[in-house]
Structure formats: structure tokens, C-alpha cells
Design brief:
The chain is mainly alpha-helical. The protein has helices at residues 17-32, 37-44, 48-70, 79-86, 89-118, 124-140, 143-171, 189-200, 207-211, 219-255, 260-266, 274-305, 324-338, 346-366, 377-392, 396-422, 426-430. The chain has a single domain (17-424), classed as Up-down Bundle (Amino acid/polyamine transporter I).
Length: 439
């Protein structure tokens, strides 16, 4: 399969449906509620509500494609494996490369977001690094501990958000509530599509369920159910938050603050509830970071198994059954990024990488035979179109950064293929036929 004679070390199947749903929710809620609404409002004002609906439709198409593929390929790696098996090794590599690089930057953003809510000025980067090390240690000691901590964090976030929404509406003077429908279509469709692309950043968490497919019990049944359930809950949460902050602050108010939910509470008479936002922001960021580390580690494991990353990253801990080397290296890289990354610049870049990742997922699902189909092909075509449209409407700086990263990935893989060919191992890395699962 990968040109190596070493036996592949499997991960342990320890996650049930509830565990998978909470891991997906932990990824989505942390990323979107506290990071994506401000740039979306800057692009489209109240039109971000239309953008949110469009992002949800594209996410649904992607989720059904991921669910259909995961039922056939219940292993680590997500779309890296799906693209490799259905479209060829280069397609799989580009999907995996975009996911690993883009989401590693997102990890740094989530660590810094946690520190913004949990640490005073001057201590934010050290606290962010401490959070990365602590969560990497949790992941290192087994996926059941990851799932257990994720459940706790998601419950804390949902409670905090419920309190924040209730306090925002109860404390807002009735004469200050902004009419949403009046300004809904004031922005251009290009701006609305750009807001959808930015908000898609918030929906990408269900990929974590698929990338951890090797650790889910009864994956053919569990993964499709968990993906769609987590997405439905996340859409409901985002809609409630979006309507609340736009109604209380107005489009200009949301666009002018990096913490719109906290600003909505400060604008009313229930500002005493503001600590709920701080607690929710810290917990959501930790939940997203925890799930991201787990998902990137599993994708790196899959890529290392197929010689698209250094093979020693494919090691699985004999006791804890996790890709411990991949996660350790990942934690080091995230800590280095925390020292240099700009929190606000990551969202567009990450969205570009993830939209390409799901474009590959939709194309992969489209090529599956009838025996493996769960959803009609029109859904995958809609998903491909949606991903392509949203990615080209992202800010040009984000697109340029993403194109640069993919160019580096292509050069890197060509270099590795030449090295394997020189060693007589090129066939396993370069071949474009079906992999170990067939078709």
C-alpha cells in the first residue's frame, strides 16, 4: 500500500455516536461563534444571514458526501483517503495537505482565542502555549479522554451561549432592536457569497468525525448519523447567535467589534451576564483546539502511512493507541505559530483550504458506484459548485496564501516521489489506481 514492509498499526475503536457528535460540535461551535461573525458582517452586513444559510447548504452537501464516503472507508484520514481511493493519489494528497496546513494555523488561532478570554494582556501568548501543551497531553493519553473532555467543554459552551442569548434579549431596550429584514438584501451578492465563505470556517468541524473514522465503533452506521446530527445542532446555534447580535448591535456594530456577543450584552441592562461570554469563549476555543489536534493527528497518520509525510509519523502508541509522534510534532509547530500568527488573518486562509478539501470530498462521493450511494448525485454536484463559488469569493489575500501553500505542497510531494523512485519505492507512492479498499 505504501511501499513499506512494516505492518500498519491500527487505532482502537472506542467512540460511540454520542462521542462522535460531541467531537464534531466541539470543533464547530468553538470556531464559529467567537471568530467568524465579525468578518462576515464586515463583508455583507445583515446579509450575513443569507450567507449563513448558503454556508449551511454547502455544509450539508459536504456532510452527506463525507458520510457516504466514511461508510465505505472507515479509517483515519477523512478526505485524504477518499480522494486517494476515488480520484487518485494526487487528489488525496492535495486534500490532506490543505487540511493539515490550514488547520494547523487554525489551531494557533483557537489557542490565541482561548487566551484572549482567559488571560490578561501580556500573558496571552504564554497561556495559549500552555493550553496547547495541556490539550496535546490529553490527546496523547487516548481518544476516550479526548472525547470525555470534549463533552464537558461542549456542555459548558452551550450553557454559556444559552445564558448569553437570553440575557441579550432580556436586557436590550425594545426601541433599540434593529429590524433585520429591512437591510437583508442591501449588500451585493458578491459580498453575501464572501460572507458565506468566511462563515463556512465555522462549519468545518464535522470533518473531525470522518478523520477519526478508525476509532469509531460500527462506523458505517455511527459516522453518517453523527455528522448530520452535529451539523444540525451547530446550524441552530449559529442562527440563534446571528439573529441575536444583529438585532441588538446592528450590522455596523457587529462589524466593529471582535467580540460581538459580549458587546451585545454590554449594550443592554444585563451586562452582569458578560462573564458567561468569557467562560463560553474560553471553553469553546479549548473544545475546538482539542478536536483539531485530534483530527490533524489522524490525517497526518494516514498521510505518513502512504509516504506523503515522513513514515515515522505513522507510529501508534502501543498503550494509548494514538498517533503520538504526529501529535507531538503538531503541538510543537502550533506553539511556534502562536508566537507569530495574527489571529484575524487565519479565517479566510483556513476557509480556502477547507473548501478545497470538501470539493475533493464531493467529487469523490460523485464517483462512487451505485451500491455505495446513500444520496443522489445532484447533492454532490451542488456541493462542488458551492465550494468553488465560495472559495473564489474569499478575500484575495486568503486565496493567494492558499495557492502558495498548495504550490509548496506540490513541490514537496514531487521531491518525495523522486526520492522514493531513486530508492526503488516509487511505485507505491506514485501509483494512481485504487488503494487497499478498492472501489
Amino acid at each position: 500500500m505504501n511501499g513499506s514492509s512494516a505492518p500498519e498499526q491500527p487505532l482502537a475503536r472506542r467512540l460511540g455516536t454520542a462521542d462522535a457528535v460531541f467531537i464534531g460540535l466541539g470543533s464547530m461551535i468553538g470556531a464559529g461563534v467567537f471568530a467568524a461573525f465579525t468578518p462576515a458582517a464586515q463583508s455583507a452586513g445583515s446579509g450575513l444571514l443569507i450567507g449563513l444559510a448558503l454556508a449551511a447548504v454547502v455544509a450539508y452537501c459536504n456532510a452527506t458526501s463525507s458520510a457516504q464516503l466514511a461508510a465505505v472507508y472507515p479509517t483515519s484520514g477523512g478526505t485524504y483517503i477518499y480522494g486517494r481511493e476515488q480520484l487518485g493519489h494526487w487528489a488525496g494528497f492535495l486534500a490532506g495537505w490543505g487540511f493539515v496546513i490550514g488547520k494547523t494555523a487554525s489551531c494557533a488561532a483557537m489557542a490565541l482565542t482561548f487566551a484572549v478570554y482567559a488571560a490578561p494582556q501580556g500573558w496571552q501568548r504564554p497561556v495559549a502555549i500552555a493550553a496547547v501543551i495541556g490539550l496535546a497531553a490529553v490527546n496523547y493519553h487516548g481518544v476516550t479522554r479526548t472525547a470525555r473532555l470534549t463533552r464537558i467543554l461542549v456542555v459548558v459552551v452551550l450553557l454559556a451561549l444559552s445564558v448569553s442569548v437570553a440575557a441579550g434579549w432580556a436586557g436590550a431596550p425594545p426601541d433599540t432592536v434593529h429590524p433585520l429584514l429591512r437591510d437583508l438584501f442591501h449588500s451585493s451578492w458578491y459580498s453575501i457569497l464572501q460572507s458565506a465563505g468566511l462563515l463556512f470556517f465555522a462549519f468545518a468541524g464535522y470533518a473531525r468525525i470522518a478523520t477519526m473514522g478508525e476509532e469509531v465503533r460500527n462506523p458505517q452506521r455511527t459516522i453518517p448519523r453523527a455528522i448530520l446530527l452535529a451539523l444540525a445542532i451547530a446550524v441552530a446555534v449559529y442562527a440563534a447567535i446571528a439573529v441575536t447580535i444583529l438585532s441588538i448591535l446592528g450590522p455596523a456594530g457587529v462589524a466593529s467589534t471582535p467580540v460581538p456577543l459580549a458587546a451585545a450584552l454590554d449594550a443592554g441592562s444585563w451586562s452582569w451576564a458578560a462573564p458567561a461570554v468569557r467562560i463560553g469563549g474560553a471553553a469553546a476555543s479549548l473544545g475546538a483546539l482539542l478536536a483539531l489536534i485530534a483530527g490533524i493527528g489522524r490525517t497526518s497518520l494516514a498521510m505518513a502511512r502512504h509516504n506523503d509525510l515522513p513514515a515515522w509519523l505513522a507510529a501508534v502508541h502501543p498503550k494509548y493507541k494514538v498517533p503520538h509522534r504526529a501529535e507531538t510534532i503538531l503541538a510543537v509547530v502550533i506553539c511556534l505559530l502562536v508566537l507569530a500568527v495574527d489571529l484575524r488573518a487565519v479565517i479566510g486562509f483556513s476557509s480556502a483550504g477547507v473548501l478545497f478539501y470538501y470539493l475533493i470530498a464531493n467529487l469523490s462521493a460523485f464517483t462512487q458506484p451505485k451500491a455505495h450511494r446513500r444520496y443522489p448525485k445532484i447533492i454532490q454536484l451542488l456541493g462542488v459548485t458551492g465550494c468553488a463559488v465560495l472559495v473564489i469569493t474569499l478575500p484575495w489575500t486568503s486565496l493567494l496564501a492558499a495557492l502558495g501553500v498548495f504550490a509548496l505542497g506540490i513541490l514537496y510531494r514531487r521531491w518525495r516521489l523522486r526520492g522514493h523512485a531513486a530508492d526503488g519505492a516509487g511505485a507505491g507512492a506514485e501509483g494512481e489506481g485504487p488503494g487497499q479498499y478498492g472501489r
